[in-house]
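Good morning,

Attaching, inline, the backbone tokens for the sequence recovery test we're adding to the shared suite. The designed sequence is right after.
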């Protein structure tokens, strides 16, 4: 990761912060709009702004910058959001581990950071039909498998996670990837669909685990196009890759829903090669309850029309 991180660790500061305030930071960092974040949290925009202001005053750093596009996290904000997400997860794990005799209340559904917001909205709507109000927890894809195996969550929404013993994966819908370039790049100024071979002189922003499937597929597509891309910085997720591309670090591939992270410095263009990314429903084998079965078989892509389309799993290259 090439983003400048704060020299001080916020871990000790977050340990004493109200989890409701931390949740406001995490959701604001995912939605990047006051209205959408407040709606997900079930609070007013005024209350959300107050929560963010309290956090920034307690931590002593600016976490977000508001502009015409919405909210943009600072470098410190990106780092803080990840630490806050882990702190919230730790609080939930402590609650779960303390429940040795009583069943866990509600339905706990984990989702990977930056899961398509239209998909999340569709899941909520389906939940209402079953009378289920799932507690949604933003958990990095790489951590979901272990937590699902432990029974901390009943199910998880994840992007291209690797298979694991005791975990079933069901593809929900697929999205075509676009190429993201710095605005000053000659191909961005041209504004036409891009071939991979045209990116010969542009560094490729790679993705760290658990995006190994996507990296492998991209490398194969580059080889097929006769391209050996220059290695660029590594990003921890698709959204971070978009921010790096907008900062002039190279090019990356991303979904349409990552456009909300693109500022004036990043340009999304169609890719002539057909590359797709799959969103999966993960759940423990033998724990396919009525709601999980509905999630894995419901036509959610129809509800997300224009954003995701159902496609054969073969297009995901064994995602």
């Amino acid at each position: 990761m090439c983003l400048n991180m704060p020299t001080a660790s916020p871990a000790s500061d977050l340990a004493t912060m109200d989890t409701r305030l931390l949740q406001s930071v995490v959701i604001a960092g995912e939605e990047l709009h006051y209205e959408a974040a407040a709606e997900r949290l079930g609070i007013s925009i005024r209350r959300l702004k107050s929560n963010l202001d309290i956090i920034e005053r307690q931590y002593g750093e600016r976490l977000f910058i508001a502009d015409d596009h919405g909210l943009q996290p600072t470098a410190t904000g990106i780092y803080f959001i990840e630490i806050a997400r882990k702190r919230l997860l730790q609080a939930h794990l402590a609650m779960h581990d303390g429940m040795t005799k009583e069943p866990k209340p509600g339905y706990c559904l984990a989702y990977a950071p930056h899961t398509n917001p239209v998909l999340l909205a569709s899941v909520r709507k389906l939940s209402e039909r079953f009378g289920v109000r799932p507690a949604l927890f933003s958990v990095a894809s790489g951590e979901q498998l272990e937590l699902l195996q432990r029974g901390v969550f009943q199910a998880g929404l994840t992007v291209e996670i690797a298979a694991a013993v005791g975990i079933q994966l069901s593809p929900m819908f697929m999205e075509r990837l676009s190429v993201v370039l710095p605005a000053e790049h000659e191909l961005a100024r041209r504004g036409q669909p891009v071939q991979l071979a045209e990116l010969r002189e542009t560094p490729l922003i790679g993705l760290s685990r658990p995006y190994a499937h996507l990296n492998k597929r991209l490398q194969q597509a580059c080889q097929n196009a006769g391209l050996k891309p220059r290695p660029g910085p590594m990003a921890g997720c698709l959204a971070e890759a978009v921010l790096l591309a907008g900062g002039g670090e190279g090019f990356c591939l991303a979904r349409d829903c990552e456009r909300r992270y693109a500022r004036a410095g990043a340009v999304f263009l169609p890719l002539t090669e057909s590359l797709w990314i799959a969103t999966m429903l993960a759940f423990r084998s033998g724990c396919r309850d009525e709601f999980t079965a509905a999630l894995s078989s419901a036509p959610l892509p129809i509800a997300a029309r224009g954003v995701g389309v159902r496609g054969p799993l073969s297009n995901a290259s064994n995602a």
